[in-house]
Amino acid sequence: MRRGAFTLIELLVVVAIVSILAAIAVPNFLSAQVRARVAAVQGDLRTMAHAAEAYAVDWAGEYPPYRDMSTCTEYPYHKRYSFFTTPVPYLTGVKWRELFTPSEAEPSGPQWDIADSFYLTWTNFWGYACNPTPHALWPYRHDHTFLLRSRGPDRTLEPDSSRNAHFIGEGALSPDPFLYDPTNGIVSRGELLRTRKEWN
Fold first, then answer.
1. What pLDDT, on the 0 to 100 scale, is given for residue 51?
2. Does residue 1 lie in a domain region?
3. How many other C-beta atoms are found inside a 10 Å radius of the C-beta of residue 166?
4. Could you give the number of structural domains in the chain?
């Protein structure tokens, strides 16, 4: 008895259906990965914001510094984050490489001296008090106080001018040059941030 076989047309139809399903499934899978990373980074930002608030309770309202006010120089990152872990462990540890660090990025110095390329950025607005001229963020020292930020899914650090424009526009710029907005596409321009105003 002669066995039946698939015709070329039938095989092509099956291949076309599989290709269509793959074209639908793969982007959804990749976007789910990005959403998971965004959620994880937002969790890290929230945890660090809570740690900063706990620090302020113990230090009469003072938040962890990020500048040496006697010299007006920024602390290296190991020093900035040491306030979160010693002598009181407000955090059990600080991730030295954030999730959105580009995979090809290479350290330019010792691990704890690497700049924004690797870390979640910690800025205390009160650190601008030593500037010879008023800084754009100085007026926001009372409400926002500090800024924690990640470079976001596009893995690119926005310039300081975009950061300042975000606060001057009270986060209401259209389009906002600094804040990540997933409605513009899963991997869109902008960064993830947290300030004292949004800490809880």
1. 92
2. no
3. 22
4. 1
Number of H helices, E strands in the chain: 3, 5
Q: How far is CA 74 from CA 43, 129, 143, 147, in A?
A: 26, 13, 22, 15
**Per-residue pLDDT, 32:** 80
Residue 157 within a domain: yes
Taking residues 188-200, report their average pLDDT.
Answer: 81
Q: Identity (one letter) of the amino acid at 36?
A: A
Q: Which residue shows structure tokens 């120089």?
A: 73
Domain assignment of residue 160, given as a range: 8-198
Share in percent of the chain as helix, strand, coil (round to 5):
45, 10, 45
CA distance 146 to 196: 6
Distance from C-alpha of 124 to C-alpha of 64, rounded to nearest angstrom: 7
Q: Can you give the pTM of this predicted structure?
A: 0.79
- What would the DSSP string read from start to end of 53-82? HHHHHHTTTPPPPSEETTTTEEPPHHHHHH
Q: What is the pLDDT of residues 97-130, one digit of tens each?
A: 778 877 666 555 444 444 555 667 888 999 888 8
Beta carbons within 10 angstroms of residue 51's beta carbon = 21
pLDDT band at 184 (very low <50, low <70, confident <90, very high): low
What are the strands, taking DSSP E only, across 117-169?
121-124, 146-150
